[in-house]
């Protein structure tokens, strides 16, 4: 096993803004963001909201990938840099979730303009993820599904497990998912202030991100450079341009308020302020918790408590001191230049190992 303050930082996303100054499913064909290699499904969650589920078919056991804040499924499948396709090549059947309000269903008419005021991480964990898991199990006939969450996606996965300790997950991987906000810093005040004073139910990082993409991969201003430094430590400029063009999505005011509340409480909590980590003590799902040693959004000290809270977890610190080629930044864990060689295979092997059926009683292991 590899060994091992701020809020899950909204500051880079705000900088992008300043730069711009019951379950029902419906198959809708190719990925709604234009990727013809995927099939996409609109799921209706138990509270009647549409979410997007994108399938990259493989022959093995299923795994669900869940993106981070102000992102979408392209953080796992960005042109030639595809965590998802690497998992398929390893023998997994890959499904990627676009949480409510992001990706192709961000304009779902059933959601309503004001919905962004009330949606929080509770809705993602109690509605979106269960709908996706149920659909995957029904579609594949599998008994369990693996779960890989980046940043907020890992936080949501932990909240889902806290609510459902016997959830049908074969394995759980959290990549750069902070849970300790005891020293939240200025980012929390930024989140709280935006949630309190922004009159819109939505905070949209797409405009600033697309303007940033239009400048090319290399930063042109000190602000460009600062945003890059917060998000990456090992990503070729060409992919940075594609990242800004495709991955950025809007955030809900309710989501920002919830993240700000975590800064006040000092730890991962539900929308009512109740801490989540103590509820993980009964969860036995095998888990990997990854932290990038150069992650400025989710520093290792803020990620480690998630591994400590889960009884069956290992902590992986991705940095040169632990034998990795580079010190990984926040987005490097899913898109970095060295991630295909050093992250994808390890995560895929872990999910595959946990997905193997237990030998029958009395059978040789």
Question: In a nutshell, what does this entry contain?
Answer:
The chain is α/β, with parallel strands linked by helices and 365 residues long. It has helices at 11-19, 83-89, 115-118, 121-140, 152-163, 185-197, 206-214, 222-231, 237-246, 253-265, 300-309, 332-335, 339-342, 344-355; strands spanning 24-30, 39-44, 50-56, 62-66, 77-78, 81-82, 93-98, 145-150, 169-175, 202-204, 250-252, 287-292, 313-318. The model is unreliable at 1-9 and 13-34 (pLDDT under 50).
Mean pLDDT over the residues: 81
Rg for CA atoms: 19 Å
Helix content: 25-40%
Summed up, the helix count is 14
Low-confidence stretches: 1-9, 13-34
What fraction of the residues are assigned to beta strands by DSSP? 15-25%
What's the total number of strands? 13
SS-based structural class? alpha/beta
Cross-sheet strand order for the largest sheet:
1-2-3-7-4-8-9-12-13
Separation, N- and C-terminal Cα atoms = 23 Å
Summarize the helix and strand pattern as letters.
Answer: HEEEEEEHEHHEHEHEHHHEHEHEHHH
Quick one: overall form? globular
Give a quick account of the main beta sheet: strands, pairing sense, barrel closure.
9 strands, mixed
Describe it.
38% of the residues lie in helices and 18% in strands. The protein is globular and about 50 Å long. The chain has a 9-stranded mixed beta sheet, sandwiched between helices. β1 and β2 form a beta hairpin. α1 packs across α7 (206-214), α1 runs antiparallel to α8 (222-231) and α7 packs antiparallel against α9. The protein is built from 14 helices and 13 strands. By secondary structure, the chain is of the alpha/beta class. The model is unreliable at 1-9 and 13-34 (pLDDT under 50). The chain has helices at residues 11-19, 83-89, 115-118, 121-140, 152-163, 185-197, 206-214, 222-231, 237-246, 253-265, 300-309, 332-335, 339-342, 344-355, and strands at 24-30, 39-44, 50-56, 62-66, 77-78, 81-82, 93-98, 145-150, 169-175, 202-204, 250-252, 287-292, 313-318.
